[in-house]
Specification:
This protein is of the alpha/beta class. The protein has helices spanning 2-42, 53-59, 65-70, 80-84, 108-124, 136-139, 145-153, 155-160, 183-192, and strands spanning 43-52, 74-79, 89-95, 131-135, 164-168, 172-173, 180-181.
């Protein structure tokens, strides 16, 4: 009786220690995963890139990233928390390319973006000097495939920091195909994942 009780007590203590060790290991693993998740949220694969609202209006058309970078018109943020804590207001423009090599060959989508910008300013009372614009051709590298891929992988981070998300999809004819591009084709291509991956 006493020997049996002693053996059982030892087994219970061993089982309790194993359970405590397993729980501690699980806790440490969970904390590590949470830290990694938080790091992923804040560390974007590619810096977020914007142009000020006033400079965007002055462009006259959508210009490539490298052109604006070399003219020192772009603003960069490396971390998501920098964006969320920034006093700026971010407008994220999404659209469907109307050409194989150019995003907006007739300028109609750019004009729609400018009109939307001014409508948002009037509706929300924002001052243009604190507004930054994100648009794919401007904000994503065009000449470096590697940098472009990293920026595309960061799209959800960019969009999550936006204060306004605008789809610019006026009816325009595709430059090469001669087919209509509008809100319906935008929605279809986005759902199918067939549009330009960053447009």
């Amino acid at each position: 009786g006493l020997i049996g009780c002693g053996c059982m007590a030892r087994q219970l203590r061993k089982a309790w220690r194993r359970a405590r060790t397993a729980l501690e290991n699980y806790k440490n693993s969970l904390e590590e995963k949470m830290e990694q998740a938080l790091k992923t949220c804040f560390d974007m694969p590619h810096s977020a890139c914007f142009i000020s609202a006033r400079d965007f209006e002055a462009l006259g058309s959508l210009r490539p990233h490298e052109d604006l970078r070399d003219r020192h018109l772009l603003h960069f943020h490396d971390r998501l928390d920098e964006l969320t804590n920034s006093p700026t207001r971010i407008i994220f423009f999404s659209h469907q390319w109307s050409g194989m090599d150019v995003p907006d060959h007739c300028g109609t989508q750019y004009a729609t973006m400018v009109a939307a910008l001014n409508k948002i300013v009037r509706a929300k009372g924002w001052r243009k000097r604190i507004i930054w614009i994100w648009a794919d051709y401007i904000s994503i590298p065009q000449s470096s495939r590697g940098q472009q891929t990293l920026a595309i992988e960061s799209l959800t981070c960019y969009a999550s920091a936006a204060h306004a998300f605008v789809i610019a999809a006026p009816p325009v004819m595709h430059k090469e195909r001669g087919t209509l591009c509008d809100i319906h084709t935008y929605n279809k291509r986005m759902c199918a994942g067939a549009a330009r991956p960053y447009s």
